[in-house]
Amino acid sequence: MSYTEATIQLLSPEGSLVESDVTAPYLPKIAALSDAQLRDFHRQMVVTRRFDIEAGNLQRQGQLALWIPSLGQEAAQVGSGYAARAQDHIFPAYREHAVGRLRGLDPMRIIELLRGLSHGGWDPAQTGNFHLYTLVIGSQSLHATGYAMGLTFDGATATGNPETDAAVVAYFGDGATSQGDVSEAFVFAASYQAPILFFLQNNHWAISVPVERQSRTPLYLRGTGFGVPSVQIDGNDVLASYAVSSTMLDSARAGGGPQFIEALTYRMGAHTTSDDPTKYREHDDVQFWSERDPISRFETFLRAKGESEAFFAEVATEAEDLAADIRTRTLALGVPPTDKMFAVYSDPHPLMDEQRAWLAAYEASLDEVTE
């Protein structure tokens, strides 16, 4: 599945601004962006991609148990993440590395999680209201909806003050739309007119299951069935991601209820480093989407506006510096202690104690065999 007639695109694959009756409502959002903000779009996409690649390399070298790539989805994440205000709350799945970094999350927190040093328990109050990664597919949509309903009950939204009114963004993938949790979230969000933006990154694959096997219709139509205003955008277009997300979040904060965006993008890498996409993907599909790479497209746009070569070199250097820093800090972490896997509860727990004792006895028995 590629673009449809309903797909909103502000930046063509060739890197030029699309001006039409469809894009007209969103173009003022782009016109209001400063050159510095446009440069930051590029910076965030490039630096996050370099972090992503370095983390994948670290996993292949035995430093991480697993890595979850976001390669190819940078525009969807940076645009929508940039559209959220400081008071908004973000509920990610487990691939939103760019959004987390935008909100102030140290990428090492993700590294620690996938190295076995952390259960992912960062405090959203310290990470720009960026909530925890959620590995249970689709469950964060219900968490986010409940939080958005709470904002309404607390009077923290729809007061008429856009500087303080809050909303929620829930990220999930196309595979999650097949989970009952997402449909239930739509029901509650619509019923209570919760201030939430459901942001679907349709990267075309639920591990090895293609999106056309998951749904006979475009996924953005799911929202309309629940009475949720829904649009489909080019997820590889950072301008569309920003402008449409900003518009829909404005509506949600002002009392317009839930909103839904389906961002058409593509998972250029594997589902995780335990997956081999060459076994189920067609070369032509990969080629189609690689020609619509979000970073090179936006770079073309910036160059046409007169951006200097020095800027692109500066960003490339910043990306390499981050990658080197992540590698250094990862190698310094040391071996995850065995006890970490049992540190689930704040107080002693008999089941955890029993499992810890069993593992200790089992490992001791292995030593006896080798002696």
From TrEMBL:
Keywords: Oxidoreductase, Pyruvate, Thiamine pyrophosphate
Cofactor(s) needed: thiamine diphosphate
Family annotation (PANTHER family): 2-OXOISOVALERATE DEHYDROGENASE SUBUNIT ALPHA, MITOCHONDRIAL
Pfam families: E1_dh
Protein's name according to its UniProt entry: 2-oxoisovalerate dehydrogenase subunit alpha
Annotated EC: 1.2.4.4
Keyword Oxidoreductase: yes
Family according to the record: Belongs to the BCKDHA family.
SUPFAM superfamilies: Thiamin diphosphate-binding fold (THDP-binding)
Lineage top rank: taxon: Bacteria
Keyword Oxidoreductase attributed: yes
GO biological process, one term: branched-chain amino acid catabolic process
Protein's job: The branched-chain alpha-keto dehydrogenase complex catalyzes the overall conversion of alpha-keto acids to acyl-CoA and CO(2). It contains multiple copies of three enzymatic components: branched-chain alpha-keto acid decarboxylase (E1), lipoamide acyltransferase (E2) and lipoamide dehydrogenase (E3).
Catalyzed reaction equations: N(6)-[(R)-lipoyl]-L-lysyl-[protein] + 3-methyl-2-oxobutanoate + H(+) = N(6)-[(R)-S(8)-2-methylpropanoyldihydrolipoyl]-L-lysyl-[protein] + CO2
GO MF annotation list: branched-chain 2-oxo acid dehydrogenase activity; magnesium ion binding
Domain Dehydrogenase E1 component: 43-306
